# Entry
Amino acid sequence: LVACDGRTALVRTAAGDWTSAAWPPVPPREGDEVTLSVRHEALRIGAAVGGANLCAAQLEDSVFLGEGTQHALRAGPSLLLHAYETHAPARARGATTVSCAPEDAVLLTE
# Structure
């Protein structure tokens, strides 16, 4: 955890610095080791959500699952993300971006 101001927390991740507005019952302190959890349906591909929590990624694979599509994206050399979209356009493999709103980035301390 890089910084927190009582409303949001700045977390350094393998995908860069991301902001969380979803806190655990006991708020962490700067310097604490935390996990940033984002549900796969909260990730947005190709567009920033309010300009926050944006990282470059490579779309590696997409699987149509009936009512939605699951995408595998690589952000950096070691981070594999999975995003789930309903009613989404067909997406080509290659360079894109991934983002999520700060309220969808949940801070976990355990």
